[in-house]
Predict the 3D structure of the following.
Amino acid sequence: MTYLCVDGGQTKTAVMLLDDSGRKVEAWRAGALTTPWKPGAMDNLRVVVRSIAEDLGRRLRSASQESPEASCFSLTGYMEGDETIPSLIREEMGRAVPGIVRIHTIPDYVGNWAAATGGEPGVMVIGGGGSVAYGRTGSGEAVRIGGWGHLLGDEGSGFWIGLQAIKAALKSRAGVSQKTALGERVMQRFGTDDDRQVIREVYSATFSEADVAGLVPLVASLAQEGDETAAGILDEAAYHLAGISLAVLRRLGDLAVYPSGGIFRAPTMRERFERALARSEVSVEVKDAVSDNPLNGVFLIARQGLEQ
């Protein structure tokens, strides 16, 4: 008995075939996904899913294996209630792998939640390229706060921290705000001493959200060295991540919070987050994530669904 697990993101799509114990049977990668509401996204999704289905069919035939017992597609940008995407996935999978029946389609943050909590009731807050808090109770009641993208939200994310660092560097150099080592170190990262070059690069078509988020280690390092501006950026990020966590807790009640994502691996970030939670009117238990590999959560949902 096997399970097909798919973690579809904007840089790559990871695919794994796992046995009932979670042991890897096969693993491969498919193309990156386009955010669903952008032009060409559905065509892109069809191409990626078709390639997964065809690859799966070939692998099953070569190993004389039966179709997976179930599958789960965890997709960036997918919103629950939109039947268009699950329908497309069922169509493409059914064409290449006729025996596949149970197919779960979930937003990526649900896969992250299942990985972080082990599928148990709790609130997962992820600080990564974006930021989102998602909680689920034992009765299946669920609430999501955040996950609105960098134009409308994502405060406390890697992108947000990196962007604050660039802004602080430019303002410091212009004499608008207090002196900070970010002024010099951010310019070094860009390889220039010309503010105009930084501005041109940030607004260029080739400069990505990942490039901005790549400044997080620099901010964390300077904060440890005592730079007030860098420390303030991390404190504000922690405040925002605590805020969306508390918003979920107010609606779902007494649940543990599981921080997950690369931001929480930055030095002192976990401590800053817990201090921000402690300043609230709610007593919060913070637990280590069971796993920060979303495919582990995808496997849990493929195997047992979301029903409690």
